[in-house]
Amino acid sequence: MEKAKTETTTKNLVFSSVGDKSNVKQWLEGERNFDLFVCYYGDNECAVKEQADYYLERKGGKFPNLKHVFDHHREIFDRYDAIYVSDDDIGITTAEINQLFSIRQEFDLWVLQPAFSLFGKISHSITKRQPTNYIRYTNFLEVTCPLFRTDKLTEFLDVYDPNLIGYGVDWWFLHTLGYNLDKRVAIVDAISCLNPRDDVKGGTREIASLQSNHKRMKEWDRVSDTYDIKEWPKQTLGVVKLPLAQQLQAIRQWWPEYYQIKIINRIKRKLNLG
After folding, report:
1. How are beta strands 133-138 and 236-241 bridged, if at all?
2. CATH number of domain containing 114
């Protein structure tokens, strides 16, 4: 490891595999309550190397690289109560990341994620922001940007096979948590992040350069059979609402976003763009 912190004043860590087209600078524009671990997989000079508290150069996706760090530098995990494991292109501010850590502690959650903005990619409808909520207790969240209580993350990394990249990793870490996930897993609607659409990134996903879609699905079939991992219907198990005044404010802010997306989708359909 090229750079490693030996002492810390925070109990929160953000980990990401970072390339040359990342949004990580946005995560660092304010005062933060977290340390940053950058695993750089690009081919140039890493733009956020100086801001990183831990820095390693290694090709690969975020969970395989996280597994590598876990296997070789487990002492790092012992320093933190919570770890946010995010794709490097997620649009989210420093203050919002700070708040995610605070919400995890407030509700003693095992794992959470910010809701996804309508302006970005949404692979599972349950992850779409619902503006009148503070948080939603769910039985599912996505692999894109989960924030874990550290002991729950290490339980998963103890069994995780880094040949599995992307699809299925979320089902696997949920499987390690057990089947009673009520009030343990949540989507934070009070904080939404932007998961960039593939067309914004040139139509090519970074993960495709690591492993083909066919190979990813074959690996998931192998892992799910080996560990008897089931996919279940995605459900909301409970809701914590915002105070009424904040609900009204959130709706006013969300409404233009909703209608802009409807108009964009209508134009795309007319132009046969999807």
Report:
1. antiparallel
2. 3.90.550.10
Question: Using one digit for the tens of pLDDT, what is the confidence trace for 242-264?
Answer: 999 999 988 888 877 777 777 76
In one-letter notation, the amino acid at residue 49 is K
Q: Is residue 272 part of a domain?
A: no
The Cα 194–Cα 6 span in angstroms is: 33
Residues 172 and 220: their CA atoms lie apart, in Å, by 9
> What is the span of the domain harbouring residue 89?
12-242
Chain-centre distance for alpha carbon 74 = 21
Residue 7: inside a domain, yes or no? no
pLDDT-derived band at 62 (thresholds 50, 70, 90) equals very high
pLDDT tens-digit map of 3-36: 888 889 999 999 999 999 999 999 999 999 999 9
265 within some domain:
no
pTM of the model: 0.91
